[in-house]
Amino acid sequence: MMDRGSNPQEEKEDEKGGANSSQKSNEFEIKGKAGRSPNKSEFFRADQIDLTNLDRHLSRVWTKAETRRPKEEWEIDLKKLDIKSIIAQGTFGTVYRGVYDGQDVAVKLLDWGEEGTKTESEIAQIRVSFEQEVAVWHKLDNQNVTKFIGASMGTSELRIPAQNSLNGDLIQVPSRTCCVVVEYLAGGTLKNYLIKNRRKKLAFKVVIQLALDLSRGLSYLHSKKIVHRDVKTENMLLDKSRTVKIADFGVARVEAQNPKDMTGETGTLGYMAPEVLDGKPYNRKCDVYSFGICLWEIYCCEMPYPDLSFAELTSAVVRQNLRPEIPRCCPSSLANVMKKCWDANSDKRPEMDEVVRLLEAIDTSKGGGMIPVDQSQGCLCFGKSRGP
Whole-model pTM? Predict the structure, then answer.
């Protein structure tokens, strides 16, 4: 603070005390140019600062700072991106359909938080997750992995429709978002495809084709030392020819050389390996376990463990070796692959390239698919009780 005693006018005001003294306690002093004493116009009351406008100003400054940083190799030209309509919404963000440079694309937006809605630590966590997803995805190139187009980090320049195409509600456009742009796949998620076929089931050759696509994609990821960590039918997409492509690398990681460096309950309940549920170290074999659950789901067109809570399922999978019930009509060649993949001992689970070979060796010429439930000879393999 400057020595204010040299200003006679201020000395007189100090002598008045009362309201003027309390007013001083709420004032900031700003040092003038060349160290001169500030005049009265250079004082600001802390309780009169417009924090809303200040937040907006800082947001603009933040955005400008982002635009000044060096451009990453995966960053796209937002002028070429035209966002059309919403495909899906969830806690992860919103997925839109759009066009980028003439190509049909899906655009996943992550909201970094309007002013005051997220803490700095939450925003930092979103940023780290986004950077990790992009770092993994943009280097992948395989027919069974959804093609990465590009991304943009912390932008306010997106052109987003004003109305939600799903429910007609107005869309509140976030001031700061990051987006991941990937190829658009018209077939939707594998999970929705299985739900649509829940009653009539799938032909055995279709089951094996879907399983091979998924296993080949995972084998490719593992060859690149990538562990997906959230393998489930909801994260698999289908193109027009029903080819399965792995998507959503939000929690994917480069596999740690030391398994002890990978711990924590990461993934989705029902697909998580026992070692992951139990908080123990794990490696790429957690994906193999999850694939085994997906394989059962593809064959049965059913959801695993539909009636169990998190606590019940965790305890039963880890301590009672609970697994989905394999129908009696399932060919042993496929049932054996399921059992190998979801073995409680991760060391006994096969590598994904071995799973590919096992599936390729299965004969589909004689059928073997699950019998539709609405036929008179429908499959009655499942009992009513499927819990622990």
Answer: 0.75
